[in-house]
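Researcher: Here's the sequence for the chain we discussed earlier.
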Amino acid sequence: MALCGVLAAQSFPYQDASLPAEQRAEDLLGRLTLEQKASLMMNASPAIPELGIREYNWWNEALHGAARAGLATVFPQAIGMASSWDEALLEQVFDIASTEQRIKFIQYRKDPQGSPQYHGLTVWTPNINIFRDPRWGRGQETYGEDPYLTSRMGYAVVKGLQGPDTEKYDKLHACLKHYAVHSGPEGIRHQFDARDISWRDLAETYLYAFGEIISKIDVQEVMCAYNRFEGEPCCGSDQLLIQLLRGKYGYKGLVVSDCGAIDDFWREGRHGTYLGEPTTAVARAVRTGTDLECGSSYRHLLDAVREGKLSEQDIDVSVRRLLVARFRLGEMDPDESVSWNRIDEALLACDAHRAKALEMARESMVLLQNNGILPLRKDVKVAVLGPNAADSVAMWGNYNGFPVRTVTALEGITAKVGADHVTAPDQAEVIIYVGGISPRMEGEQMRNSPEGFDRGDRTTIELPRAQRAEVDSLRKAGKRIVFVNFSGSAMGLLPETGNCEAILQAWYPGEAGGTAIADVLFGDYNPSGRLPVTFYRSDDDLPGFEDYDMKGHTYRYFEGKPLFHFGHGLSYTSFKYRRARIWKNELVIRVRNHGRMDGDEVVQVYMGKREDTEGPKMALRAFRRVHIPAGKSVKVRIPLDESMFATYDEASGELKATPGHFTLWYGPSADQEILRHRKIRRR
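Model: Thanks. This is the structure I predict for it:
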C-alpha cells in the first residue's frame, strides 16, 4: 500500500500532529519491533512503510552554507566568518543556509533521485572545537582559538539554523561537534588519546563552548569525536557523555557518532579498546548515550542484545530521542502540512542570498598590514599575480556547496578598475599578489601530503617556498606589493611583512570573495575584520602538535611576541578610546572615529585576575561590533556581571566569580601594549 494509503487507513496517536513530539514518539516506539528500532539508529535509516516511516539520512552538512548537494549559496569559510565578530550577521547567514537546506529536502522529497544523503534536515554543524594549533587542517571549520568568541558565534549559528522557537516545527537541527577535546592531528585521530588534560583546561577551554551553548539554546544534536579521552573513545566515554554532557550540562538531545568512530573501538590498528569485539563496542556506545551511528557498526546491535550486552530498554532510550527529533522537524508528517516545506524554491542561491554572501565576505577581510598604500586609486596600473588569483575552488573552503558563480580575486579586481588597468608585471605600479594555501592542501584527513602538509594538517606555518621566493624577487625588482593571503589558518608571514607594503587576510572567502577583496583594496569598503586566531612569527613559536596542555597555546597563554595579535585588524580610519568609566555596574567605553571615513570597530574587553597565577594572562570576556561615522563617537556599555569575573576555582573545578584583584583591558585587540585598562577589586 502507498504511504498516503497507509496514513489514511490508520489513526494512531503518533500520527496526530496536534500532540507533543514526545507523546507521539512514545506511542510509535511501542509499535516498533526490536529489529526496526535498531535500523533507526543508523544514519542511513530505512523506510518502515507499514508504520508510515519514510527513509531518512541523518548525514547532512551546512558548514558555511548548504553543502554537498549541488547548487547553493557559498559563504566564507567558518574561520573567515569568525573574523567578522558579527553575531547578528552570522545568524542571518545561517538562516539562509537553513532555508536552502530545507529547499534541498523539499526537492528530494518531490523527486527522490540519487541518495537522500545531504538532502535532510539534520545538519552536522557548527564545529566549536578550539583552534588550539594553527597546524590543524580542520581549524578552518571553527570559530577560532578563543572559547568565549566560539561560544557566542556558535550560539548564533544554532539559532539561525534551528529557527524561532515559537514555530510548531523546527526549521533544521544543528549539531555541536566534535565532543570533545579534539583539534588534531588528523592523521592519528583514530588512535590518539587526549590524556592528562587538566580540569582547568577542560572547564576554561575545551568544554566551555559546549556548556555555554547548551545552557542558552535547545540545540538538538551533539557529535562525539574520534579521539580517546583519558583512555576511552569519546563516543563511549562515561565521563564525557553521561557525567558531563547529560549530567552537568543537562543536555536532552541526541548524540551522533562521527563517521566510523564506533569502528575505532574494535578494529585493529585504531583505538582497539574492545579489539575484535564489535558487540561489546556497540553496547558500550549505546549505554553511554551515543544514540545514532554514522557508520556500520550498529548492524551488530541485535547481536549485542542476544548476547545480553544490551537490553531492548537500552535501545529504547536512544530510539525515543531519534523519534522525537524527527517529529520536531515535521519529517514524519505529510510534507504539505509543515510550514517550512512551503518555502519558495526560487530562494535557492537567489540574488538576495548572494548579496548576503558578499556582505559577509567583506566583513571577513582582515587588513593585517598597511603602510599607507591602501586604499589603491582606481586608475593605478596593477598586475594580479599568484596561484590563488584566478582559482575559484580555493575560495570555497571545505564542506562546501556549489555556487551559481564564483568571483575570483582577478575577476573582482578587473571589474573594479577595468581591463585597461591589468597589465604586465614590468609595467605595473603595484603588484597584487594573491597567494597562500588552499583547501586542497589543508582539511580533514586528506590523502595527499605535499611539501609542508601531512594528511590535511600542516607541518609548517610558513608560506610555500615558491611563493616566498617570487615575492622576494618582485621586491628586489623594486615593485610595490600588496599581498592577499588565502588560508584557513594562521600563516607565518615574517619575511612578507618586510617585502610587502600591505597584507590582506582573505581566508577562503566564498563565492563573492573576489568582489569583497577588490572592494577593500580600492576603498569601496572600509576593512573591519578582526583575527579570531593569533598569527605567530614562525614555527619556533609553536609547542608540540600533540600537546593539549594549553600552556604556550593561543593568546591566552602564549608568552612570546606574535606577528599579529588575536583580535587585530586595521581600518582606513582611526579609532580613539577614552578612559572607560564604571557606571551602574557597567563598563562604559567611549570610542571616537577620528578619521574621514565611516567605519566599524570591534571593541574588545579582556579580563585577568592577579591572584590566578596559573590561569591565562588575559581572556576575552566581551565584545561589541559598532558602526561609527567619521568624526562621531559612540558609547559601548558592557555589563559587569558574574560572568565577566569568572575564573577557574580549584576547590569546585568550576568557573566562578570569586573575590580578588581584577584588571579589565579594553581596546582593538589582545595587544596589551595598546590596550587601556581599569583595575577592579571584588570583595
